[in-house]
Amino acid sequence: MTIGPVEYIIVGFPGNKFTGEIAPELEALVESGTVRILDLIFIGKDTDGSVISFEIDELDALAGFGALDADVGGIISPKDIEYAAAALEPNSSAALLIWEDLWATPFAEAVRRSDGVLLEGARMPHELIAPILADLPPAV
Questions:
Q1: pTM, rounded to two decimals
Q2: Are the C-beta atoms of 38 and 3 separated by less than 8 Å?
Q3: CB of 92 closer than 8 Å to CB of 13
Q4: Residue 20: left if φ>0, alpha if ψ -120 to 50, beta else—which one?
C-alpha cells in the first residue's frame, strides 16, 4: 500500500471558543485530494479538570465535520487523548487530527525508492516563521 507522510496536530481552543470554522476548510483539503483524514477527535476539559472526548458524530456542535470524506477512527488511543488533554487548561478544548499528506505521496515514494531515510522533520509555528518571512525582500 502506497502511503504519503502522516502528520498530526493538536489545536487548542482556550475558553471552549470553538466555532467550527475549520470544518469547511478541512473538507476543502479532503475534496481537493491534498489530504486524507485518518482520525479526528475532540477533547475537552471542564472547569474542575475532568477530561471528556468526542468523535465527530457524538456532539451536535461538531455536525459540520460529519460531511468529511474521511477514514476517521482507530488510530487515536486513550494515551493520545491523555497526552493532548495534559496541555489543556480547565474550561478549554482541543481537536486532535491525524492526516495523510496525499500531495507528498509521490515524493515520499521517490525517497523510499532511493533508500532515503527521514532523519528529522517539524512544523514551524506561524508565530515563528511569519516575522522572518515578512523581513525578506520581495521575490524577483
A1: 0.82
A2: no
A3: yes
A4: left
* Model confidence pLDDT, tens digit, residues 91-131: 999 999 999 999 999 999 999 999 999 999 988 989 999 99
Q: For position 63, what pLDDT does the model report? A: 55
CB 121 within 8 A of CB 4: no
| Per-residue model confidence as pLDDT tens digits over 10-26 | 999 988 887 778 888 88
Find all residues with CB under 8 Å of 107, minimum gap 6, and list them.
Answer: none
Helices (H), the chain: 22-31, 78-86, 105-113, 126-134
User: Which residues have C-beta within 8 Å of that of residue 98, sequence separation ≥ 6?
Assistant: 6, 7, 8, 37, 38, 39, 40, 75, 76
Q: Report the 10 Å Cβ neighbour count for 29.
A: 17
For strands 6-13 and 35-45, give the pairing: unpaired
